[in-house]
Amino acid sequence: MTTPAPTIRVQSEDFDLQSEIDALTAGRTDIGAVVSFVGLCRGEQNTLSALELEHYPGMAEAEMQRIAALAIERFDLLGLTAVHRYGKIAPGENIVLVIAASPHRQAAFDGANFVMDFLKTSAPFWKKEHGKDGKAREWVAAKDADDSARDKWA
Amino acid sequence: MVKLVYFAWVRERIDKQEEELELPAHVVTARDLLVYLKTLGDGYAAALEYPDVIRVAINQEHVEHDEPIAGAREIGIFPPMTGG
After folding, report:
1. CATH code for the domain in which residue B16 is found
2. N- or C-end of chain B: fewer Cβ atoms within 10 A?
């Protein structure tokens, strides 16, 4: 069996979940399970006007490729898509998408979960909050809980 | 000469996106580099006040602070990541 090449994109524009799933499964009859995760921008009790996502161009894609390759190998995935947006993102808008495909459901659930846990802690993206008053606020602080979530896969 | 690239609050405090520097011979590891950069001015000192939390990437791959930087074309210096 050949290892599938993941679809990895870093982009400012929005993505469409169904189109991405369709692209992953088109013409395939070996896939029995597709799990998708979409991360959205929260409004934080209506105090936030936008999140500004900064990334390290080149490394962001490279690191997502490395994470995807680990997930495909570990869970024998049949397909994997990861899309991460950058730039200003308003509450309710999409930030990140992960889709994992496998013959049976458990590998797809685990694969998507694994990719998100590593994406949060090792893909070079940073969030800055912009308040409703129009002022840039603080950079979002990294959470120990995210490190713990990643470390459970060790 | 090595190209240094900065992101998020490290970039803001240093007030540069990137720069090319000639590093002194005693700068051997990533940690040495952070300690050296701290001496270059107030912005650097503010950005790198707590070097243990700073992440370093050599040629766009994460490295530990004890990694030698010899031969690096590009070194990224940034805070812990908060994407996803």
Report:
1. 3.10.20.30
2. N
ipTM reported for the complex, 2 dp? 0.96
Domain annotation for chain A: domains and CATH numbers: 7-151 (3.90.1170.40)
Longest dimension (CA), chain A: 55
Sheet holding A48-55, edge to edge: A87-89, A48-55, A125-131, A136-139
Question: Can you read off the two tokens belonging to residue B36?
Answer: 């050296």
Is pLDDT at A1 greater than 80 in this prediction? no
Q: Which residues of A touch B (CB under 8 A)?
A: 39, 53-56, 58-59, 62-63, 84, 95-96, 116, 119-128, 139-142, 146
Full residue range of the structural domain in which residue B60 is found: 2-78
Give B 12-71 residues with CB within 8 A of chain A.
57, 60-62
